[in-house]
């Protein structure tokens, strides 16, 4: 009996610390990964100070590691041609929570990719390649989830990019991580990255084994960086009133008593006065409103002139050339200004003016369905001419705007730099920002040229 008692006491002494430890562990906060739903706007890749900045693609040779060796792309504009620079497509970058599929057809007659939403088609060994995300992976025919990215709260990103596909030379290649079946073959890994919730700046990187085609067994290495913009949300509140049945009922003779604007009940029996009770419940519904993302484009020329004594002599000229400039859905779609018109917003340090370019003044370039572009003419101005033309593989599209007269509301008493031009044409928005190389003459002119595609959020 004594032995059993000692064992029982030792067992009891051990239970206390174990229970305390279990309670402490149970009460420990769990890490929470918050999904980032919106657009990861990418910054175009470029050479800088002997290195590379922005977004790019590299291809690891078969048998290599994540550190290389890399194949050299003779069509790359980078000083180190193992880097292929990427520039934003018409959506500005990668959208999470939904798909950005390639168009139909996906290729032109020579095998160049026509996918333009995420990145602009980019030459790779003489043929333009691009990327898309689709509900059904075109290479494996597997159904896949939309791209997702989560932030752990400490600025570390993880995600699921199994829907990511690359298109090149008439062929489709899954370049996601994980692969559509959830696996990570070879060097397939990621995506991982960093995120600054204060500025929106992010980096994302992942690798994916290439299966099939002339680069079978090689590995694609993708690097994105830029600014994350959350999807916009609005909250709508609907109130529903529910009347509860009276708990006590009656009045004297035909007298009706009600304490709320609801149905009153009358009785001729001699019972206590009627009391009507109303309960109200509130239902809140949150809906997501799609944002028209501005496509960031490089500006070739901006010219503003002013004459305070003769405002009729004011003029504005804009030329932007960029691979990201296109026609969106094309003739007859919601992106066709002949049906819905356009606006041009001119924003400087000292002015912010929006001008309407009515649908009736727009016309197709070439026959309907040819998708050669749109032109605008209005001799009554202030915008009297505009031209939007799509690019071709390796050749940028173009946007030209011309205006003149007293209808231009800006003045040039002080330097307006930087000046943003936001052209909403049909369902597309193009944003060029002119700073950098500028010439300003107070009261007379502001001129800028060769402005790179802007970063951040469009005005």
What would your notes on this structure say?
This protein is mainly beta. 7% of the residues lie in helices and 41% in strands. The chain has 2 helices and 32 strands. It has helices at 2-27, 337-340, and strands spanning 34-35, 38-42, 46-48, 51-53, 56-65, 68-70, 84-85, 93-95, 122-124, 127-133, 148-151, 156-160, 164-168, 171-174, 189-195, 201-209, 219-230, 233-243, 278-288, 294-296, 299-305, 315-322, 342-348, 351-357, 362-364, 374-377, 383-389, 397-404, 419-425, 428-434, 438-441, 445-451. The strands form 6 sheets. Strands 1, 2, 5, 6, 7, 8, 11, 12, 15, 16 and 17 form an 11-stranded antiparallel beta sheet that branches. An 8-stranded antiparallel beta sheet has the order 25-26-27-28-22-21-32-31. The longest helix has 26 residues, at 2-27. The protein is globular.
């Amino acid at each position: 009996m004594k032995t059993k008692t000692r064992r029982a006491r030792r067992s009891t002494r051990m239970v206390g610390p174990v229970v305390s430890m279990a309670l402490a562990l149970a009460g420990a906060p769990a890490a929470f990964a918050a999904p980032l739903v919106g657009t990861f706007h990418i910054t175009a890749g470029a050479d800088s100070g002997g290195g590379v900045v922005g977004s790019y693609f590299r291809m690891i040779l078969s048998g290599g590691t994540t550190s290389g060796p890399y194949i050299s792309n003779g069509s790359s504009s980078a000083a180190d041609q193992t880097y292929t620079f990427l520039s934003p497509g018409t959506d500005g970058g990668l959208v999470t929570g939904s798909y950005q599929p390639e168009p139909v057809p996906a290729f032109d007659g020579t095998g160049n990719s026509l996918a333009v939403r995420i990145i602009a088609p980019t030459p790779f060994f003489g043929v333009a390649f691009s990327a898309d995300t689709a509900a059904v992976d075109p290479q494996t025919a597997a159904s896949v989830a939309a791209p997702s990215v989560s932030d752990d709260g400490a600025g570390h990103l993880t995600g699921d990019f199994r829907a990511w596909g690359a298109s090149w030379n008439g062929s489709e290649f899954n370049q996601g991580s994980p692969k559509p079946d959830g696996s990570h073959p070879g060097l397939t890994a990621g995506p991982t990255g960093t995120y600054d919730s204060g500025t929106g700046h992010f980096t994302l990187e992942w690798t994916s084994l290439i299966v099939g085609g002339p680069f079978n067994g090689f590995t694609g290495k993708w690097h994105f960086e830029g600014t994350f913009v959350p999807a916009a949300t609005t909250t709508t509140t609907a109130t529903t009133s529910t009347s509860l049945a009276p708990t006590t009922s009656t009045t004297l003779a035909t007298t009706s008593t009600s304490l709320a604007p609801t149905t009153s009940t009358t009785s001729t029996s001699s019972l206590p006065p009627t009391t009507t009770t109303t309960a109200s419940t509130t239902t809140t519904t949150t809906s997501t409103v799609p944002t028209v993302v501005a496509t960031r484009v490089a500006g070739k020329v901006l010219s503003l002139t002013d004459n305070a004594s003769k405002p009729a002599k004011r003029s504005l000229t804009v030329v932007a050339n960029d691979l990201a400039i296109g026609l969106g859905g094309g003739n007859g779609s919601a992106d066709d200004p002949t049906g819905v018109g356009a606006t041009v917003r001119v924003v400087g340090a000292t002015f912010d003016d929006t001008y309407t370019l009515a649908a009736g003044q727009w016309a197709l370039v070439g026959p309907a369905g040819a998708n050669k572009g749109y032109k605008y003419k209005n001799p009554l101005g202030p915008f009297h001419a505009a031209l939007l033309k799509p690019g071709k593989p390796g050749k940028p599209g173009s946007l030209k705007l011309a205006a003149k007269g007293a209808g231009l509301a800006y003045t040039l008493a002080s330097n307006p730099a930087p000046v943003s031009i936001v052209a909403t044409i049909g369902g597309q928005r193009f944003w060029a920002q002119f700073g950098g190389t500028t010439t300003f003459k107070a009261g007379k002119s502001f001129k800028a040229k060769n402005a790179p595609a802007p970063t951040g959020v469009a005005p």
